[in-house]
Amino acid sequence: MRLLPTATALLVLACAGCGSTPTAPSGAVVELNASNFDQVVLARSGASMVELFLPTCPHCQAMVSTVERLAQDYSGRALVGRVDVGSQGSLATGYRVSAVPTFVFFRQGREVSRLVGEDSYAHLSAALDAAIAAP
After folding, report:
1. Distance between CA atoms of 11 and 35, rounded to whole angstroms?
2. Which of 65, 59, 50, 58 has the alpha carbon at shortest distance from 111?
3. Separation of alpha carbons 69 and 11, rounded Å
4. Quick one: which of 17, 27, 104, 128 has the most CB atoms within 10 Å?
5. Of 3, 61, 67, nearest to 32 (Cα)?
6. Global pTM?
7. Which superfamily, per CATH, for 14-133?
């Protein structure tokens, strides 16, 4: 998968492959929504990876174990969260999500990169490492 510029703006939401609580225990994926996103992600001083997904998307379903593994492996170093864009349309629109899954990487509340589509642990980990190291 490739990094996309943060200014990409398509508002049609589709599965990238087929067209179709505010806190969590340490090492767990944080469920994000419009009510907690600003506080949990944007106000965070460190790095975050947010997956924007649809529960019915097979490519999103295929990423569940990878995202959970990232949350465990980066516990204490970065936040790993996810947003169900089916129920959180305002976040999908606000972040110009055109396909799912979309992975947005933040550092100190600022978007530093994004990846779109089903991807490997190694590629997501490298992007998260870059977000941790970003100024």
Report:
1. 22
2. 50
3. 30
4. 104
5. 67
6. 0.82
7. Glutaredoxin (3.40.30.10)
The pair of three-digit structure tokens given for residue 71, joined into one six-digit string: 């949350």
Digit-coded pLDDT (tens) for 16-64: 554 443 345 557 999 999 999 999 999 999 999 999 999 999 999 999 9
Strand 78-84 to 47-53 pairing = parallel
The answer to whether the bond into 5 is cis (omega within 30° of 0) is no
Q: Which two tokens stand for residue 31?
A: 């469920």
Distance CA 117, CA 92 (A): 15
Q: Give the pLDDT score at 22.
A: 39
pLDDT value for 16: 54
Encoded tokens for 89:
């349309």
